[in-house]
Amino acid sequence: MKEHVLVIMPHPDDETFAVGGTIALYAQRGVPVTYVCGTRGEMGRRMGRPPFATRESLPGLREKELREACRILGITDLRFLGLWDKTVEFEDPEALAARLKAIIEEIRPSLIITYHPDYSVHPDHMALGRATVRAVAQLPPDRRPPVHTRAFGKASAVLGEPDLVVDVRPVWETKLAAIRAHRSQSALVLADDDPEAQERLRRDRTQEAYYVWKFKD
User: Which InterPro entries would you find in this protein's record (predicted)?
Assistant: First the structure.
């Protein structure tokens, strides 16, 4: 099977903060990466530091930032589902899974990366993770690509140690540039005037851990 990575997450910047190093490593090898982004981050709380966006301008701004981050990471296929930020959990799960299944059958990815359906903190993260897993489960077992999920919070206490940890230090500067591209969301995290915060960011973001989703049949 020809390699093709499909990333399914709900927000502009999820692809960078959560899995940007993994994406950059695949892109560096020439593997195509498609990002299916659920929303345009319309309800994001951060407006820049100091604020330079408004509630009205934020969706367009975040889409522009995402396109630049995709260019930096090497994502060449960006698609939006057109869902509304912070409401993904209220979408019809069967309808959403059907939309994702159609994309999966079109692309035929060798790997899908998404959020863990139960342990990824944000309701949007978990809802789109659940829809992704549901979509893949509807495929015949011999046609299901592996699904790698990102989990946070108390996940390790429940799930145990991750199945896979990706060291992204070789592409850290690329990931950092993509973080900077999401300027409206990353200013507080970057803390350019605080060397200790910069080191903490590097330390916290240079490993990307995954749990491999195990289907029951």
Answer: BshB2 (IPR023841), GlcNAc_PI_deacetylase-related (IPR003737), LmbE-like_dom_sf (IPR024078)
For residues 24 and 16, give the distance between their C-alpha atoms in angstroms, rounded to a whole number. Answer: 9
Query: CA nearest 46: which of 185, 153, 148?
Result: 185
Three-state DSSP at 115 gives strand
Per-residue confidence (pLDDT) for residue 52, from 0 to 100:
62
Torsion angle, CA of 148/155/162/35, rounded to 10 degrees?
20
- CATH domain 5-212 topology: Rossmann fold (3.40.50)
48-84 tens-digit pLDDT = 566 667 778 898 999 999 999 999 999 999 999 999 9
What's the pLDDT band for 120 if we cut at 50, 70, 90? very high
Specify the DSSP class assigned to residue 11.
Answer: S
Distances in Å between the alpha carbon of 140 and those of 104, 117, 127? Answer: 13, 21, 23
The pLDDT-based confidence of 118 (bands split at 50, 70, 90) is very high
Give me 74's structure tokens.
Answer: 């090497």
According to DSSP, the β-strands at 164-167 and 207-212 are antiparallel
Single-letter amino acid code for the residue at 109: P
In 65-215, at which residue ranges do the beta strands (DSSP E only) sit? 77-80, 111-115, 147-150, 164-167, 207-212
In whole angstroms, give the CA distance from residue 213 to residue 19.
16
Report the predicted TM-score, pTM, of the whole model to 2 decimal places: 0.94
